[in-house]
Known about the structure:
Blueprint: H1 6-10, H2 36-40, E1 44-46, E2 51-57, E3 63-70, E4 76-81, E5 93-96, E6 102-111, E7 114-120, E8 133-139, E9 155-161, E10 163-172, H3 173-177, H4 190-212, H5 247-254, E11 256-259, H6 277-289, E12 295-300, H7 302-312, E13 320-327, E14 330-341, E15 344-350, H8 357-360, E16 367-372, E17 376-381, E18 384-389, E19 391-395, E20 402-403, E21 408-412, E22 425-438, E23 445-448
Parallel strand pairs: 1-19, 11-23, 12-15
Antiparallel strand pairs: 2-9, 3-4, 3-8, 4-7, 5-6, 5-8, 6-7, 10-22, 12-16, 13-14, 14-15, 16-23, 17-18, 19-22, 20-21, 21-22
Amino acid sequence: MGIINKNYVSALDPSLDVREIDHKVYDIWREDAFTDMLQIGDRKQPTSQPFFISWTNVELFYRGKVTSATNSGTATVTIVLDAGSAGIARKGAVGYLKDGTSGIVTSVSTTTGVDTITLKTDNGTLTVAANDYVNFGGVLVGENAISPTNARFGYNKYTNKVAAFTETSKITDIQKAGKLEAEIDGQDSFIVKDHLDKLRLFKGAMNFEFLMGQISTTSYADGTPTLVDPTSNGVDGGGAMQRGRGLYQYINTYGTTLEAVGSGTGGATTPNGQVVTADMDTVCDALLANRSMGDQVVLMGSAVKRGFDKWGKNLASSGIESVRLVIGGKELDLEVDKFNYGGFTFNLATMGIMNHPNVSNTIVGKSALFLPNDYRVPVYSDGGVQNMPALGMRYIPNGSLYGNEVIGETYTGAMAPHPSGDARNWQTTWHADAALEFKAPSFGVAMQVNA
């Protein structure tokens, strides 16, 4: 945390004390641009617990991987599926093979967690080999049939933890009274600038964590936590700390991570800043396998976008157009390049936070993140399935008297707007308990483009 003091004020360039100056203070670092991740996560949902869970349904139509096959090339084939395919085959189900032929599952037996099935047809032969897949459809029955074996489907469970963010601004009575020639938000008090800087610092910290956070094993409820707040006055502080997973870890854990093969010069097949058609083919295959939406937004930094720009020159037939990104029916001040490829629509969005050196030199900043556009996915709800936000913020509601629903603001000191104590200073502290939530992270794809 940074705390303003008079030494810092006095160390400002002497030109601030002369008359013929531009009274504005210019924001050359554009730290405020870090709130772009919060702009995406602006869909907020309160939670009463520092640990939250979201659920998605599982795949209904499975395929089983073949370990071995007996009597392949005949009308009745015995197939052993691998252990990961156990429990998905049912008698009466149709099994479709890669050559377009198919048969009916007439028997299923399980031994030590491995299923052996019999697949039968009365129209030609069935050819199956190890490492092939049997793609199961629905169950067919005959005349005067009884009910088929009941299929049981579970849920995918996704968890995250709320992290506690804080920042403070403190100034003494003398510093508070001092005036500067520079103007901040139309005022000449340095405390105004300090408040603006600290708020940007506070929001920037949330942005970094929402993008790059790694969920901790430590939770607030741990009796012997591994992560402990290092700040303590001997009475307060020193409690257990926890962190939530950011967007990249959501994708890396539950979605798909890829590496662009790049130009492939000299036989290279590692990321080298280039994007080629084979890379986009791989992305499309991953999106299809993940059953993701046809309309995608792709988050990246400017250095990564160069690779897409060079590849895009070859897309004259498809066309690339510049459009405004729309989220939740609201047009954002974010221009994106839009193009169609492989049955998907891609909106390339350059994010300010991914250009920051603290991000761009990591694998997160070197990657392009593919997400459902408008950050929405189908959700079961009253009246059927509706498209609901998949990406947003979970937060514990602010319990302070001041601030908004997410960010609390407290004041201490005799010089504060609402005085407390007799110390002649003014300290403002901002705090929030929040985390990013990605309700359908299996849809996400991250492709590393830069080395």
